[in-house]
Amino acid sequence: MELPPVSIKAIILVHWLLTVWGCMNHIFPASYAWGNFSVLAMGIWAIVQRDSLDAIMMFLTGLLLTVLTDIIHVSVFYPPNHYLSDVKRFSVGMAIFSLLLKPVSCYLVYQMYRERGGEFVFNIGVARAGRDRSTYESIDQQDAPPPWPDTSKAAQQPY
Predict the structure, then answer these.
(1) What are the residues whose beta carbons fall under 8 Å from the beta carbon of 134, sequence distance 6 or more?
(2) Which of 56, 80, 103, 127 measures 20 to 30 Å from 50, CA to CA?
């Protein structure tokens, strides 16, 4: 199934808006805002340098890391039910929605990385006991002289 092309600008704009809404009510510590806005800054770097594989890879890595940190922030700092006002509920909801949207964004950014020429292929295959010898090149060469003198010939005595 082919996804429609999505601009990296749209991804950054959506995550910026959701992060701003998630930070609205000071439920989460400053590390939530710093982490997410830093990753969005890497996304802006990926927009500015269109040919850079490092920029798009750093943005992708940052998005993957913020998935983990967002899970920690939401699970640790989620307020008890009797402290939830409508504004806090909205703020936490937007943070959760941003978290749910990040895997889709990661996939789209990975596709952009591949379009830019990136060749990182994530493969978790079972290691095989046998070796692939299709690219094996023998180091034994028949034409090369041996590195030691030939002892089969008798040493010639000077007269």
Answers:
(1) none
(2) 103
d(CA 54, CA 39): 13
Q: 9 near 45, Cβ under 8 Å? A: no
pLDDT beyond 90 at 39: yes
> In what helix (H) or strand (E) does residue 86 lie, and over which residues does it extend?
helix 86-115
47: CB partners within 8 A, 6+ apart = 8, 9, 12
The alpha carbon torsion through 68, 71, 75, 79 (nearest 10 deg) reads: 130
Distance CA 94, CA 34 (A): 17
Cα distance between the two ends of the chain: 88
pTM of the full structure? 0.70
pLDDT tens for 143-155 read: 666 666 666 665 5
What does the alpha-carbon distance between residue 98 and residue 80 come to, in Å, rounded to a whole number?
21
Per-residue tokens: 20:
């701003």
- For helices 30-48 and 53-77, give the axis angle rounded to 10 degrees: 160
Longest alpha-carbon distance in the chain: 112
